[in-house]
């Protein structure tokens, strides 16, 4: 198969085709729309396995000197070889490894099975498989914020505190990029001390929820996630979250806050390759 890059004049048609593939395409569609709205697609390659009818999509940074996240869509495990071809093509200008999110666990299994052994397979699961949750407007029940707190949003000055709250902190630049480009909600005390927040990931899901330990009995997590969901809906976006299947606390939290589980799981994949 030939790798095809979707051209800017074809973006409207791509959007329509991805929307028809919902909910399986939710990651690829929301990410594509975010990048387009933020005028960040000029920095990306939007790759498909054929055009105008495609079965696989990969959106990846055009020139990368460090590891970065790419977002994919694969219609069915039978098209896993096409996905691998696109990822191989995308990896030419990247440093290993390349991370991919947005494809089902069945697609991941097909990629692994295509290789003779796990030792020779360039694909690895980065975590437990991810349950995909969506949240509709009718399921969002507002919660009143307790006295002594106020709602705002994250900004660049919060980069360090957000980074320190993560066990897998990542680079400071990537945290700044995320909280300055995508929607977020921050709860502060009346004197301006940050105590709870959540942000939309570049790939579209909402996450990185954090509540400072001493404030975790005030329902601030529920207030943050419901407020952020409302912001996304008012912005015309689809609301979804990805939760590791072995994270019982997070599963209960999302279901208690109105999220509905979709009938498939995503895998967050790592593609390890040799620099030629």
Please outline what is shown here.
By secondary structure, the chain is an alpha+beta fold. The chain contains 8 helices and 13 strands.
Characterization of the model:
The strands form two sheets. Strands 1, 2, 3, 4, 5, 6, 7, 12 and 13 form a nine-stranded mixed beta sheet that branches. A four-stranded antiparallel beta sheet has the order 8-9-10-11, with helices on one face. 30% of the residues lie in helices and 27% in strands. Strand 2 and strand 3 form a beta hairpin. The protein is built from eight helices and 13 strands. The relative contact order is 0.17. The two termini are 22 Å apart. The longest helix has 15 residues, at 220-234. With 276 residues, it is of the alpha+beta class.
Keywords for this structure?
276 residues; alpha+beta; 4-stranded antiparallel β-sheet; 8 helices; globular
Chain-wise SSE layout:
Blueprint: E1 4-5, H1 11-20, H2 26-37, E2 44-48, E3 56-61, E4 69-74, H3 80-90, E5 98-104, H4 105-113, E6 123-125, E7 130-134, E8 149-152, H5 159-164, H6 172-181, E9 184-189, E10 194-200, E11 206-211, H7 220-234, E12 240-244, H8 248-256, E13 260-271
Parallel strand pairs: 4-5
Antiparallel strand pairs: 1-2, 2-3, 3-4, 5-13, 6-13, 7-12, 7-13, 8-9, 9-10, 10-11
Principal-axes shape call: globular
Intertermini distance: 22 Å
Helix content: 25-40%
What does the radius of gyration come to?
A: 19 Å
- Total of helices: 8
- Give the mean pLDDT: 92
Biggest pleated-sheet summary: 9 strands, mixed
**Uncertain regions spanning at least 5 consecutive residues:** none
The SSE order reads EHHEEEHEHEEEHHEEEHEHE
Strand content: 25-35%
Number of strands: 13
Q: How does the helix and strand content classify structurally?
A: alpha+beta
